[in-house]
Amino acid sequence: MAIATLTGVTHLEPALVHDSYVLFTGADTITRLIDLNGDVVHEWPYAGVPPRILDPTINGGRVGDVGVQLSSSGDARGGIYANGSVGRLDWDGDVRWEWGPQAPSGAARQNHDWEQLPSGNWLVLVTVPRVVPGLGHKTVGDQGLYEVDPTGAVVWQWLAGDHLDQFGFSDAGRAAIAATVDRDPDDPWGYLEMNSAKTLGPNRWHDADPDGPFHPDNVLVSFRKANVVALIDKRTGDVVWRLGPYFDAVPGAQHQRINTHALPRPLDQISGQHNPHLIADGLPGAGNILIFDNQGGAGYPAASLGIYAGSRVLEVDPTTREIIWQYTAEDSGRPTWEFFSSFVSNAQRLPNGNTLITEGMRGRLFQVTPAGAIVWEYHSPFIGHGVAGEPEVDTPRVSGVDRLSRTRLVYRSQAVPFEWTPVDTRPALRPVDGTTVR
């Protein structure tokens, strides 16, 4: 017997939300733009990893263009090998730019992230099958970055495997990585699982110290399996700032449940994190780093986690490495395990100080105030198999589980300003008190 699941908007307080559209790819691999009433405003029959509506100020003034995956590579390994081509669609779904066949390997192998730069180039997180120095003689899926110009030419590249000595691994950690690679060189998610890449952009740290590590062109990256967040110097390729992989324990508390300790406080063990990025100028918390700390199993060696599984969103001052703000389920008066996604997910700071959170594993999107009050909550009704963006092939390599299962998984979501779309009318918000479901 099927168990009923709440879907759609389950809570909405119009006076307290930041109103916008929200973009995400459902588990059915269709990318949709919804309003806060949960109504679908527009959709494209493509998945995005992640999908993203482009900022018109760096997109030639064009509104309504979206970046998505356009084709599969056909590689049976799936995961980080799956994307054949990525590109930009206009509002009507016509392809305006595509990259993949021009890639060095003949396929984009884009995964986890991408960004359109102010120059018009694209920064693309890619997989490059190769033998990584110091990790044996087997070909593995190394991950890194390509900067691609509008003609499709790669004008800059960076590979994680060339910088392992800069990630702070202990001897035991390096041995654990080597053993993992030897055991499973075809891991569909990569030995480090690089899952995020975002340039810093203009920021107050660079304004105060132009020679410091926070140059606007530098790229903040995340390695999920390694519990590392690192800043790459665009000019040299060196890691010039880092969080992780190891953290000093905070005495007398399980780190994911600390809500009573005063802020700010030193950052403690992150695990399986996603989407670290610098909060942009003009937003509350500008210059701090926002991290979705999954608290999923990860680490070389594996990090010790608390008993009560729960994710958290952290705002970290990069100069002091202290937590400035955080969100856990307990901040909404709920048990800590009611907010948990051991993989995928993201968070986005909004202009009114609220934060949009994607609890991806459950397909739950919600918006919280700085005090942790939930003022909008939406559960994706769109169901598919395996991981969004991958073909529904009945193999463990693709699904990541023993058997394909139906899921509402959402990798990431994006709050989209109304003016970034060609839609003329703004929807009137309809309150939902949490006792009814729309």
Explain how this protein is built.
The protein is mainly beta. It has a domain of 141 residues. The chain contains 3 helices and 28 strands. Strands 1-25-24-23-22 form a 5-stranded antiparallel beta sheet, with no helix packed on it. It has a 5-stranded antiparallel beta sheet with strand order 17-21-20-19-18, with no helix packed on it. Strands 4-3-2-28 form a 4-stranded antiparallel beta sheet, with no helix packed on it. A hairpin with a 5-residue loop joins strand 2 and strand 3. It starts with 7 loop residues before the first strand and ends in a 22-residue tail after the last strand.
Summarize the model shown.
This protein has three helices and 28 strands.
How many E strands?
28
Helix content: under 10%
Return the average pLDDT rounded to an integer. 92
Low-confidence stretches: 388-399
Q: Give the helix/strand class.
A: mainly beta
Strand content: 25-35%
The count of helical stretches stands at 3
What order do the helices and strands come in, and which of them pair?
Blueprint: E1 8-12, E2 21-25, E3 31-34, E4 40-44, E5 52-53, E6 66-72, E7 83-89, E8 95-99, E9 110-116, E10 122-131, E11 139-148, E12 154-159, H1 171-183, E13 194-199, H2 204-208, E14 219-223, E15 228-232, E16 239-243, E17 265-266, E18 274-278, E19 289-293, E20 312-317, E21 322-327, E22 346-349, E23 355-359, E24 364-368, E25 374-379, E26 384-385, H3 396-399, E27 406-407, E28 413-416
Antiparallel strand pairs: 1-25, 2-3, 2-28, 3-4, 5-6, 6-7, 7-8, 9-10, 10-11, 11-12, 13-14, 14-15, 15-16, 17-21, 18-19, 19-20, 20-21, 22-23, 23-24, 24-25, 26-27
